[in-house]
Design brief:
heterotrimer; A alpha+beta (555); B mainly alpha (329); C mainly alpha (288); B: 329 residues; mainly alpha; 76% helix; C: 288 residues; 15 helices; 73% helix
Chain lengths: 555, 329, 288
Amino acid sequence: MKIHWKVLLGVLLVLLVSTMAFSYERDESFVFGGGLWGAPTNWNPLTPWAEVAGTGGLVYEFLFHYYPLTDEYQPWLAEKGEWVTPKVYELELRKDVKWTDGKSFTAEDVVFTFEVARNNALHYSNVWTWVTSVEALSPTKVRFTFGDNPHYQEWKIMLYDLRIIPKHIWADMSPEEYLTTANRNPVGTGPYMADSTGQDRMVWVRNDDWWGNDVFGQPKPKNLVNLVIYNNNVALGMLMKRELDLSNFFIPGVPKIKDTFGLTTWFQDAPYMIPENVALLFLNTTKGAMQDEPFRRALAFAIDPDMIAERVFEYQVEVANPAGLLGEGWMKYYDEEVAAEHGFGYDPETAAKMLDENGFVDADGDGWRDDKDGNAMKFEIIVPNGWTDWMESIKIIANNLKAVGINAVPSFPDYGIYMDQIQNGTFDMCINNFGSSRSTTPFSYWNWVANDEIDGEIVTDGNYSRYNDPELFTLIDEFNIMQDSDKGIMDKVSQIQAKLLEAMPSIPLWYNGLWAQMTTDVWTNWPTETNPTGYPCCWAGKMQFGFIEMLIELE
Amino acid sequence: MKKYLGKKIFIYLITFFFAVTIDWAIPRFMPGDPIQMLLSRFQGMEGGREIIEAQITASFGLDRPLLEQYFNFWGSLFKGDLGTSIYAFPEPVMNIIQQAIIFDILLLVPSILLSWIVGNKLGAFSGVNKKADKYTMPFFYFLTSSPYFWFAVVVVFFFGVQLPWFPINSAYSSMMRPGFNFAFIVDFLHHWFLPFLTLFLVQLGGWAIGMRNMIIYEMGSNYSKYMESLGASEKLIRKYAFRNGVLPQVTGLAIRLGNIVAGALTTQIVFSYPGLGYVLLKGILNQDYFLVQGCFLFIVIFVLLANFLVDIVYMFIDPRVRFSYSGEV
Amino acid sequence: MAKSEFWKKHENLYFAVTNGKVIFGLIIFMSILALAIFGPMFAKYDYEEFAGPGYMPPSKDFWFGTTLMGKDVFTRVVYGLRSTFVVGFVGGTIATFVGLIIGFLAGYYSGKLTDEVLMMITNIFLVIPTLALLIILSAYLPYRGILSQSIIIGLTAWTWTARAVRSQTMSLKNQEFVNLSRISAAPVTKIIAEDIAANMFSYVFMVYIIQFTGTILAAVSLEFLGLGPTQGISLGLVMQNAVNWNAIQLGLWWWAILPGLLLTILIVSLYFINTGLDEVFNPRLREM
């Protein structure tokens, strides 16, 4: 009997110790999901599209942070930056910043980050077509000299979007490695360091020597546990069990259950989420009737985005304005007059009238409108299979189009085929939002929906409509080389908006949200509308928008 | 007996050969281009595109003649190389599958064995007890008619949501680190129970019905009547009937294995349980050809091995192994 | 009870139509079939239409409640049932047909090369897990329809039928009437069709029922995995939607559970018919 007691006691002890160790860890950990879609395998800051979320932001830092809700810059690695002449920009860097291997961060590192793109084909190499030199004036001072047409708008993005890398490590690598290294042990200047990884998680551990502790305060969580969660059901299940602190998933039913389950969202009521990007319906302007401007405009009038917001998203999204602009950074250029004059809204009668007037009538009496030459028209609207909210949305769009006599069918090819079709231009209509995230300048949006890179075999980024209007491209380029203080800038942006609305190569429909649901069992003082202390977004490449600030303010 | 086993092994080998050939052929002769697909994930990159493209083509071997690709496929297969996953690039498919398959085994083996044993006992009981049979038989039919994933939904709804007794997804809590300690095992079992219960109950119905019918046949057979006329106790007759009924149930196991594995795949999806079924779904959604192929191959290997085991067991319990036996469903 | 001449001649049919299990099963099966055929006519809405507010439990207006978005679950289910029946009939017929042909041929030529080869193919298909094969086939078909789905399932599900039919044929072919036909030099197709198949009619019917259930189960599983038809509605898709849109967590049991329940009842009814018929044709079971 005595032995049995001992065994039982032993088992109990093990249980106690292990649960204690377990709960200790949870209290100091920040568990989140929604930004990691596969096992973590890549920490290379030179290939930001492939990096594990957090590589930029948590480890590699930026010169500035950008707060999209107020359109303000927060000096980060830079202490300040200014245009000393229209062609010269000077940065003053922070002192006492150290890389996590103990070396000091200096102006040389910033210079190297730019120089490396001059000699190698990196994603930001084209900066050298408008920058002529980058020099270190002192260990904390960098001077950028620009060519004839400084891309002022692009530069504004670059300041908060370029990951600064340590020269003493990357200078020794071979050029091939820049693109192919997985960079398993990233050395940065940031508040966290890469810790353990698993098939289903990436764990970051706090860098207690972070330079920002004295400047901004120390982030509260000791560990950041970023979980790979494949669908929103699991995320909801984990929120219900309080296993997640922050979920960045679109979860159907949140408005219905947020109070029962005690979930925090940015807005207490609709739209609950911060509008983050605009979802557009791209029309392939190289195909059939969609080559015709009035036809494309008629489509815009036929679609009812309110119904999508109501039914599919339960008001977790808002309907887009005709220009598709959102957020402080873009809205300061929104031209209400242009929108009133050239804009559109759900009005099927107007749509039908426009179609009638332009010769798109039912010539053969089969119930569907035909094109100007009397040929039957049939369109396919595509979104990737499994993207349930978009799948439902295009069903509504197809019905809206049917209501005005246009034969359109929703179709859900698998993701690969979807990408294939939009890149090769074989699609008719598709929903996409891959490059329409809020930023500091609408240039990023316009240069995405209407860039001139449509001559190649495939179109990889934006302008899936293949809308070709050199005049519009020129306007956007001219906007890029203007400063916000330039006199003619308002005129320029109005022209761009008017052109896009008249030509309607893509139709802005609704603002997809920054989906975020928070639980309050482990961490409180979440950033919300009434307590805007940060930006609850763990998506890759967006951590400089206030994620760190949120971690500092958590309680 | 040797001949019997030899013939079986031969069939399994041919099946394996056939499965591998299908596995190799399907992605190569179906529409869609895996490399373009992978590259679309690297969009936005200009100069580096060619480097990556060449590297991928080389490692997937798609630039060589078909026949050479086929032999290479076999070659790498024997080296345990199933290619590189596209969605979890550059993780080898083999690693992903190895991590998943342990969860399948922990779900499948106990549920198959237990449901077989319990199902046979219940079926035998039902077969000799007319009163109970009236109520149990429809119940067994209900269980065996349920699609696995639907039954999983029902179980989750009642025991995971309405009565929140069990977790409804994953194999263990997100903050747990897999290890051989008490807390983890308890947590694991807690997550394991509902998917296990689903598989166990749906399978149980089929075994019970099979055994019930067997017992009724056997009890009415000539030898039972003969034994009865000799004055043998009913218990003894039942025992003999059960023993004879077990044989077809063993072969039934071999025939049903494929279905059971398929059921486990869909059940795992409802529970987001990280076994092969879940991996397979991710592969399908992400058009990860190599992952889907790898899963298919492992499912086939698993079923073949299990079949082989059943054959060996059968040889031991039935010395008069015959080559031909008719399938029972 | 006096039996008429007709019933005496067709004793089995008599037992079949008086068997409680068969009657019970048939009634349920027919009601569900009627639901699939006539349900869409009675449905007040379109299956993609927003028929009312979301989250509505079953009521007078929405018999099976509404989905999260306000679609009518009843309408979706009856349309889905239609495609389920189509898949079951088409796929089941193909599977039974292929299984019968292979089984008859292998059984008739048992011991010969034809038999060996056919059985080899059968055994290979028998051990390959059908659903896995279906998954890999469907995963690479960019556009899928109900018909192609039925055909693929039918072409992979025939195996055990072939084996069972083969052994039945083997036992039948040595009976005297078959030998007689053979001596009279009747062609093989005629012998198989008239002497063997005709005598296995009841058996074939039961096989067909099982193939039917197998096919619809395989179909809903594929649909649930997202590998069903790319257009239209199906029961598996209704259930997949329910799971994807969190119907379980949100407590919408009418959406998550009812469609599958109907399907399960349908399959149970088929099992009842089959067991009943089994009793009819095997008198030993009838005594129970």
